[in-house]
Amino acid sequence: MKKMFFVAFMTAISAVLSGCSKPTPNEEPVRAVKVLTVGLDTFQAETEFSGEVRARVEARLAFRVGGKIITRQVELGQRVKLGQVLAQLDPQDYKLAVDAARSQTTAAVTNRDLAAAEFKRYKELREQNFISAVELERREATFKTAQAQLDQALSQSMAQSNQASYAVLVANVAGVVTGVDAEVGQVVTAGTPVFRVAADGVRDAVFSVPEDRLAIVQLGLKMRVKVWPQNTELSGLVREVSASADPVTRTFQVKVALDAKQPAPALGSTVNVSASPPAGAGLRFQSVIKLPTSALRQDGQGTAVWVLDVASMTLRSQVVQIATADGNEAVVSAGLSPGMQVVSAGVHVLSAGQKVTLYQPAHAAK
């Protein structure tokens, strides 16, 4: 009996001790990774910018007088001819002003004719010594005043006629309407832009350049302009570089004059503008390190890659600096040297110090 009690007691003690012992941790599996050996590659030292096609001359048309728009004869994107009527203001007030000016002119003509007749009659009387010279001079002054008033009335009448004609807005160039800034029923003041018309003729490729790239864009530099999506390539010369940066984007606007002998692309077309650096700015081709974008990951505030330590078959994080992109590859400017082995895929599931093995394709394992 005592023996059976002792066996049961020892069994219970063993169960308690086994329950308090820590479980054996599972070892992290060894992952297979794809790696590539870092080497030098060639990179064409060209800079490409995105821009759009604009007309060399774009006129902002406005009424020279104020009023209410009663008609608008053109729509956005419509072609217009030189002298074509675009819009018209309510002319009623201007017609009344013209009528008033004509009435003033008629009155001034009557006064002038009356003064002229009196001056002629008094001149004859003076020749007969019936009046004094002072009286003749007074009549002459009256005649000259009436003539001056008539000249003033004629000028005012012409000015009012011009004001009435300004109520009709006509195109001063032939081209395409690229903007409509006012509608029928709107009251506009003199000089308020109503239409934007891109004049026919030479086209420009317009794009923006950041400050650190401004040195490679010089006046007269030959540029290649690729029109998207037609994928046609045109040529042009840099004709204008902005003297100051845009206050918002801090970029400089550049205009490239397209060759007039080439077919003009449609206004607003998206283009890619590129050119080789000018003489003295560096080699056309450079030896650089390239990596596929799948090898890059974010590490804090920077970009990093996983570098394989061949001796221990573990990974370590290496911060790199990216200079630019070349297709689907990134050009690395710092952080790597030729001969290093870098993980090229699956970088987001790995950790520092993790043991790995090299990935072997299925056909190689057979």
The sequence of SSEs as H and E is HEEEEEEEEHHEEEEEEEEEEEEEEEEH
Distance between the termini: 66 Å
Give the amount of beta strand, in percent: 35-45%
Name of the top-level CATH class of the largest domain: Mainly Beta
> What fold name stands as the CATH topology of the largest domain?
conserved putative lor/sdh protein from methanococcus maripaludis s2 fold
Percent helix range: 25-40%
Q: Taking all residues together, what is the mean pLDDT?
A: 84
Give the spatial strand order of the biggest sheet. 3-18-22-21-20-19
Structural class: alpha+beta
Number of domains: 4
- The second-level CATH architecture of the largest domain is Beta Barrel
Shape, per Cα inertia axes: rod-shaped
Radius of gyration: 43 Å
> How many separate helices?
4
Largest sheet: 6 strands, antiparallel
Q: How many strand elements? A: 24
Low-confidence stretches: 278-284
Protein described:
25% of the residues lie in helices and 38% in strands. By secondary structure, the chain is an alpha+beta fold. It has four domains: 31-43 and 284-361, conserved putative lor/sdh protein from methanococcus maripaludis s2 fold, CATH 2.40.420.20; 50-54 and 200-275, Beta Barrel (Elongation Factor Tu (Ef-tu), domain 3), CATH 2.40.30.170; 63-90 and 167-198, RNA polymerase II/Efflux pump adaptor protein, barrel-sandwich hybrid domain (OB fold (Dihydrolipoamide Acetyltransferase, E2P), Beta Barrel); 92-165, Helix Hairpins. The strands form six sheets. Strands 3-18-22-21-20-19 form a six-stranded antiparallel beta sheet, with no helix packed on it. A hairpin with a 4-residue loop joins strand 20 (302-309) and strand 21. Helix 2 (92-127) packs antiparallel against helix 3 (133-165).
